[in-house]
# Entry
Amino acid sequence: GAGGAGGAGDPADGDGGDGSNEPGNDPAGNPSDVVGGQGGQSGQVSPNGQGGAGKIAADDPLVAGNPLVQAGRTSLYDVDNDGNLADNITGEGIAVDQGDKVYVVDMRVKYDDYESIFELAWDGTPVRELYREVTIKFLNFYKDSLYFSTPKGLTRLDLKSGEAVLLKEGSFDGVYFDDGRLYLLSDRLVNVQLDGSEPVEVWDRGLSRTVNQPIISNGMLYYLDELDRNRPYRRNLATGETTLLADMNCFSLSLCNGQLYVVDKGDLNALKRVDLASGGVTTLSTDPYYGAVATTQGVFAKNGPVERRGFFLESLNGNGKNSSTVLSDIALEYYIAGEWIFYHNSADHFALWAVRFNGTEPHRVDFSQAALLV
# Structure
């Protein structure tokens, strides 16, 4: 059985606290005589039980000087701008946080041909259903409203009144926020006002074929160019100036606190960090990874030999150290919002599950007690 929960951890070195001396429960909920062991580094599981959650050290590149840490936000780049992580949008964008609430899309199609947006409390408990549609993608939060894509087009849901408004018809491959404006991705990148008006074409370059895993932050578009060996670029959306950031054939890229975290296909899928100020490249891990998402809570990277049926998800700090397993088997996509990682569990008919950043409390998200729309 799992030992008692560990202490809060030491913010100076990021190590987890020691496990509790009180016995925990086994997987069936029965009392166990196994007590908590010594805490592992940054929330690693100790041999005799769960170590403390730990904290990333204050000088870690993910958190040093990062205003998101103080705000306690995980699914955005700028505390004044809201939005969502581009890493979440690259999947289906089914989760986003708002500071004290989390919003997710239930993709199990509970209502015949419909999906639903649910509001969750910060502890992950579903509270109420907010909206239904055939398909819902690319959740973004901004100033008391959710923005998302449906088969009809771009929709805004006012969280105070419950009113949903179709802002712009069309089919989109991504919806992004930056500097108080919306960016809609299809074969073009279009900038629009919050009501969908005043569309401005930012870039028309056959984007659906050439731009891979786009990130928009502070007026810059970061992306992998599929026509150029998936090398990472940065484009100034105001001037059009484009800069090659590193000579690497990348599998994925993620942005956090002025650093790009990439998986380099040309170097056996090693995990690397690119400093956007200096251009310096640091190899963090030579383990073979298949994607990585960088947040203030750690770098969450998919790992696993090719012959495995599934991937396992690891957590590392911003220097590639203190690696620990968060999930032992995971589908391709996972979404970070609030204090949770959301994913579809292949062992549970792809139901929506959630797990803490340190791998504790994995559970199926139970919508049965949430208040439903009439």
